[in-house]
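Re: How this chain folds, sequence and tokenised backbone to follow
Notation: Tokens come from a learned vocabulary of local backbone shapes, not from coordinates.
Start of record: The labelled sequence and token lines come straight after this line.
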Amino acid sequence: MSGFLAPPGFGSAPGEASTSDLPGLVEPHNISIQQLTTRTKSLCSPSTGGRFMYHVVRRSSYALFFALIGIFVNRVRHWSGDMLHSISSRNLHAHFLFRKPLILCIVSKRREQLAAQLDVLFDQIVSTISRKQLEGVYEKRGDNYDLRRLLQGTDKYMDSCLESWQTDLSQISCAIRVFPLPAPERDFLSTTIATTITAAAPEGVLFGIVLAHRQLVSMVRYKKYTINPKDLHILINFVSNNSTISVCPIWTPICLPYFNDNGFLHAYISSLWEGSAAYLLLLSVDRNAFNTLNTIKEGITEKLKANTKLFPGIESAINTQQMFQISNIGAGSDAMWNFLYKNRSSQQVCLSALRPPIANDEERQHIVRTVGRLYGVLKSVEGTRVIYMRRKRDVLLVRAENSYDLQCVLSPFCTPANAWILGDKLLKALKTHEGKHFITHTLSF
């Protein structure tokens, strides 16, 4: 069920409520709806037994509000055996996700992709406590078990995965952003990792991954194993919020829910070379493989540095982050301000570099919100192929094909015909520069 929450007792059907009753839901000395609307987003994660686990806003008054939300959820379930999925008022939206034994709730001023954000939060929880462990601990300890004991120290990862929805277009588009690197350098990096792992012949290594600046630089795999973009985002989130990695290698268990949500891989994570913003991840099923993988990493670094022709290019690219320049499309490019291209098959995205008039954080946030809304439209309206929308400050063009999604922000003076022509030029330019901005094949070892 999805709908508006209705107050008990006014002739409402079970599970429905009038939005006019929302301001009365909370006692004045705790928190008001008006206070919640001053924040873009708040979130909590209680158990089905009502035990409060985690919330973005660390104030006890908010905990009381979310406890009340839990009462609504249970009321609807007891009334009709149904599940409450959402509550909406004019400027406040609450969405719920049921993943036994947890109920997750997000409250936001904006309604875009709230369910997807809850999915990401649940995946983040499972990355620390596998699905099997999560269900087992509640079966053993009961619904009122305080899961915060097992999640201690993970708040920064949960906060970050939600904050990324405000800034990271790859997260919103459920895809991976590939770090721009010329094809010869990327091939050399991938080949070096794959051959070094093969030569060492370690037991249980499944993936070798290089990340930099929250982007995928390179990946090699054992035979035909694959890794889901959502699992890659978990790894990106972990690396981005762990400062220890830049000082020394770390060895940690991590559950990747879309690879196996009932078990753990063991991750060796280290700077690719000293002082580098690129990080090497070696994922293994062997919990005792740290020393072996540390030796492999040293071998990879040594081989990279030994190539005086290609290594300087890799090092320079990591330090400079050269994004796709819209000027690559040629004549008329001034009318295109920003774009996002997603390859549906590889689940990889390419974003344009910021250019005037999109030149500050506020304008960037506007673009992020726009992309979020457009993806919501593409998901909710099946069969949508083209959207052309003229707004006061810009023009939006969306082209959704079987193989790709393209979203462009253009000058408000751009006509539909010119917008389409610029879209075609962009697609050709992306094909020309494909090797630099996409990973077109993954090596196996």
